[in-house]
From TrEMBL:
E.C. number: 2.7.11.24
GO molecular function: ATP binding; MAP kinase activity; protein serine kinase activity
Cofactor(s) this protein requires: Mg(2+)
Protein name: Stress-activated protein kinase JNK
Family that this chain belongs to: Belongs to the protein kinase superfamily. CMGC Ser/Thr protein kinase family. MAP kinase subfamily.
Function: Responds to activation by environmental stress and pro-inflammatory cytokines by phosphorylating a number of transcription factors, and thus regulates transcriptional activity.
Keywords annotated in UniProt: ATP-binding, Kinase, Magnesium, Nucleotide-binding, Phosphoprotein, Serine/threonine-protein kinase, Transferase
Main location: cytoplasm
Subcellular localization(s) per the UniProt record: Cytoplasm
Higher taxonomy: Eukaryota, Metazoa, Ecdysozoa, Arthropoda, Hexapoda
Gene source species: Cacopsylla melanoneura
UniProt catalytic activity: L-threonyl-[protein] + ATP = O-phospho-L-threonyl-[protein] + ADP + H(+); L-seryl-[protein] + ATP = O-phospho-L-seryl-[protein] + ADP + H(+)
A GO cellular-component term linked to this record: cytoplasm
Length: 106
């Protein structure tokens, strides 16, 4: 796997995620790319893998599924301002977030 996925393909270590290593990424890829689904890593195990776990958020994983998407919106003609308003109205129920994407407390 080192030849297929050399270190340059992965982010370099950073102070934010200093545990992330190319070797961990390769390990996860090798477990995900197993052809036999019975031997392939499960979603739950993948979420607990050291390379992914730094981003794991229990609330996000077990959040309710989103509602069905209304494709008819995409088929309508709108001005740029109308698109902006539609996008804002989609965002508005979630409220503002902090700089790191966490929903701000009101």
């Amino acid at each position: 796997f080192e030849r297929l996925f050399p270190d340059v393909l992965f982010p370099t270590d950073s102070s934010e995620h200093n545990r992330l290593k190319a070797s961990q990424a390769r390990d996860l890829l090798s477990k995900m790319l197993v052809i036999d689904p019975e031997k392939r890593i499960s979603v739950d195990d993948a979420l607990m893998h050291p390379y992914i776990n730094v981003w794991f958020d229990e609330a996000e994983v077990h959040a309710p599924a989103p509602g069905p998407y209304d494709h008819s919106v995409d088929e309508r003609e709108h001005t740029v301002d109308q698109w902006k308003e539609l996008i804002y109205q989609e965002y508005f129920p979630f409220g503002p977030t902090t700089g790191d994407g966490v929903r701000a407390q009101s």
